[in-house]
Design a protein that fits this description.
Elements lengths: L4 E6 L2 E2 L4 E2 L1 E7 L2 E8 L7 H5 L4 H9 L6 H16 L5 H29 L4 H21 L8 E2 L2 E2 L7 H23 L3 H7 L7 H6 L5 H4 L7 H4 L20 H25 L36 E9 L2 E9 L7 E5 L1 H6 L2 H5 L4 H11 L3 H4 L2
Antiparallel strand pairs: 1-4, 2-3, 4-5, 6-7, 8-9, 9-10
Length: about 375
């Protein structure tokens, strides 16, 4: 039966393209012969804005890059600034930072898996995921007053210490999440419709994934054991016991399983952090040459001036964000504003592999494969 090739535009206004992404599909009947992602519908010039703001003023803009998991983006930029200026961070502040980032990793994967199942036509996991996400957002709100965009991590530490009652509430969340993840696996892992939609769909080999610059769960789902928390430890990750979650199949189901495994590991990390966190203590202000009660450093922050000009130089700093490797490249000319800011975002790099993953598949398979890439368009159109 002969068919004619047809150009089909999927998006940018489409619920399964997660915002404002367009796929230009060259179809032979129902088969995708060529897939071209079309970007730029959400472009906001964030990197150029970073060159127009002071180092402190730019931190809230990093929240808006990946608004599903903003804490790691705050931290990645702040870490680059600290490396550029040689700023020391109190140990208790690093513990608090890891709590926020691992909690945010769980939140990210809950939204990712819930959205994936919703795209495939099942709403239960979306409702369950947002139920647990709400408990995590209440912890964020208790910590810093915000639920999605935080501006809490700052150069030298964090803005304030953990409030009273936070740790018991966190322990309740950890205890509850352990049972909830078991519920997710029971609901999803052996569902025959889900398995048909995910197994052997969107397959990409380890070599191809590396060549495309993929990182995070999408890369580890292809059997590549690469996690910056292990490969290039930062903060307190060197002192924590956890494993990089890897699956070898390279298909959509493997990428889903990696995220389930990572939520379990994040719970394991959070328990260790809670058990070993150093006590709060008063820091002497004499070391910093300032009088008490006039901006003296606390147990969770070293003194950081409002008017801050790091020495001239450049730095590239990277972390393992929930979606993959997140890097900030900053050039300083010695003034209060960065001379250049460049962001290496995981969503953008992982998205480049989609044309290879879906070639020869059908449009419903594109939905499944794209859902397991876990893209946020604010992180793509910077």
């Amino acid at each position: 039966m002969e068919t004619d090739e047809l150009i089909v535009n999927m998006g940018p206004v489409h619920p399964s393209t997660h915002g404002v992404l367009r796929f230009r599909l060259r179809m032979d009947g129902e088969i995708i012969k060529e897939c071209t992602p079309v970007l730029g519908y959400l472009h906001r010039g964030t990197e150029k804005l970073g060159e127009m703001k002071t180092y402190l003023q730019f931190i809230p803009y990093t929240d808006r890059l990946d608004y599903v998991s903003a804490f790691p983006y705050n931290y990645a930029f702040v870490k680059a600034v600290e490396e550029l200026a040689g700023i020391e961070v109190p140990l208790r502040a690093e513990y608090i930072r890891v709590i926020t980032m691992e909690l945010n990793r769980i939140v990210n994967h809950l939204v990712s898996i819930g959205s994936l199942l919703m795209d495939l036509g099942a709403s239960t996991m979306m409702l369950w995921g947002f139920r647990e996400r709400e408990n995590a957002l209440q912890l964020f709100e208790k910590l810093c007053g915000a639920r999605m965009t935080f501006n809490y991590i700052k150069p030298g530490g964090v803005r304030e210490d953990i409030p009273e009652g936070f740790i018991p509430q966190l322990n309740e969340f950890l205890k509850d999440m352990e049972k909830r993840i078991e519920d997710y696996e029971q609901l999803i892992n052996s569902n025959e419709i889900f398995l048909m939609r995910m197994k052997n769909i969107g397959v990409i080999s380890a070599e191809e994934a590396i060549n495309y610059g993929m990182t995070g769960p999408t890369l580890r789902g292809s059997g590549v054991n690469y996690d910056l928390r292990k490969y290039e430890p930062y903060s307190i990750y060197r002192d924590l016991d956890f494993r990089a979650c890897v699956r070898n199949e390279g298909d959509s189901y493997a990428r889903y399983l990696v995220r389930i495994d990572e939520m379990k590991e994040s719970l394991h990390i959070l328990r260790q952090v809670v058990d070993t966190m150093p006590e709060a203590k008063i820091v002497s202000s004499a070391k910093y040459g300032i009088a008490p009660m006039t901006g003296a450093p606390s147990a969770v922050s070293t003194y950081f001036p409002r008017i801050f000009a790091p020495p001239a130089g450049e730095v590239y700093s990277r972390i393992e964000a929930p979606k993959g490797e997140l890097g900030f490249y900053i050039i300083s000319d010695g003034t209060t504003k960065p001379y250049r800011v460049k962001i290496r975002s995981p969503s953008f790099c992982n998205l480049t592999a989609i044309p290879k993953m879906v070639q020869g598949l059908k449009i419903p398979d594109l939905i499944a494969a794209f859902g397991t890439i876990d893209v946020v368009l604010g992180d793509v159109d910077r």
